[in-house]
Amino acid sequence: MNFLDKVYSKSDSIVSRKIADEFILVPIRQNVGDLESIYTLNETAAYIWELIDGKTKVEKIKEKLIEEFEVTPEEAEKDIVEHLMQLEEINAITEG
Predict the structure, then answer these.
(1) What does residue 20 show for φ and ψ, rounded to 5 degrees?
(2) How many domains does the chain have?
(3) For residue 36, what pLDDT is reported?
(4) 3-state SS string for the chain
(5) pLDDT digits over 60-74, tens only?
(6) Distance of alpha carbon 67 from alpha carbon 74, whole angstroms
(7) 37: domain range?
């Protein structure tokens, strides 16, 4: 499957809060927040995070990123790949 055809969902084990233009992600383990693993998303990552809904393909997220930040398609794809890989590493998102 082409990467741009993938769809991601937010994990139920992550709680997020928006503060200004950033999102704070806190993993929840056994109903207790792991305060040693709090993640802050920059403006670009926060925008991508908001678009992850379990329905939208990565291609559509890329298109919206290009519109919002006026970047080239190559820059947008590089940012998306980087941010999605990081979110996968911390189990904040799942594919499918």
Answers:
(1) 60, -125
(2) 1
(3) 66
(4) CCHHHCEEEECCCEEEEEECCEEEEEEEECCEECCCCCEEECHHHHHHHHHCCCCCEHHHHHHHHHHHHCCCHHHHHHHHHHHHHHHHHCCCEEEC
(5) 999 999 999 999 999
(6) 13
(7) 3-95
